[in-house]
Structure formats: C-alpha cells, structure tokens
Design brief:
Layout lengths: L13 H14 L3 H17 L18
Amino acid sequence: MADTSKWKSVGIDISTYNKLRKICDAEDRNIRQQITRMVNQEYKSVVGKEYDTMGIGSVGQKNTV
C-alpha cells in the first residue's frame, strides 16, 4: 500500500488526462513529473517566490532565509 504521508491520488476527467498525456509526451516527462512542474510554476505565480522553498505549511509565512 502506498505511503499516504508521501503520495496522494487525484481524479481528473478523461479530456484533461488526454491533454496532460500529450504535454507529457511532448516534454518527455511522466505524469507525476509534469503535474509537479505545473503546480510549482503556478504556485510561484500565485503565492510568490518568497514562499517557494518553505513547503506546504509555509502559506502565510515569509521566507527569511
């Protein structure tokens, strides 16, 4: 059984999955790598670079390092 403290499952519709699969094929990544990349890019855009390396519990805290 998967370690739920490290991995989570998400559900997406078939249309979105097919689009994601095409992006993965074009950029030579697996789905996990592609989702991680896309989420990190959007996170920087929405939350900002000051929270970039602090982890999920850092929302609302500024990076002082």
